[in-house]
Amino acid sequence: MDLTKDRLVRLRKEKDVNQDVVADLLNVSRSTISNYENGLPVPIDALTALADYYNVSIDYLLCRSHERRPAAGTLPKKFELYAKASGGKSFSASDVDALLNALIKYYRAGAPIGDLPPDILCRFLDGLIASLHAAVAHDTSALLDAVNEATLAGLEVSKLITAYFGHDFDKNSADFE
Length: 177
Hints:
The longest helix has 21 residues, at about 115-135. α8 (about 115-135) runs antiparallel to α9 (about 140-155). It is built from ten helices and no strands. It has helices at about 5-15, 20-25, 30-35, 45-55, 60, 75-85, 95-110, 115-135, 140-155, 160-165.
């Protein structure tokens, strides 16, 4: 698990600057930056300046979020644009929220059938996204491939039942007799 000090070091190295550069930005000594990177608490004004400099949220710096910059600001606008473009035939942020809540509940319950549900979901979404891009590009071959991938992922939902009951059914199994 990351700590604030770990994120500060990583972000500084990603930006390829030394502690002196960050110290100048905050108008503090290099040893102060070293202290922050070694785990001493960072005052809120310094956190704000560091978040702006590294283009991350304060929550990310404090390890309260894994998202460097939450998309929350743009996401509601995208749902609105999608609803308008689709003539109101759309899903909502509430639907996505419900899906995420279900996944969280599933993992908190010990993931009774492993990583199969989110794996299927990710494969389906990847196929659907690729299908939309191929359709816009009028790329028939890519569209067919992407639709097939999404369809195969969607069909894998049936594996949830066999995983839940712990059976590996196949056509030669006595379970079908």
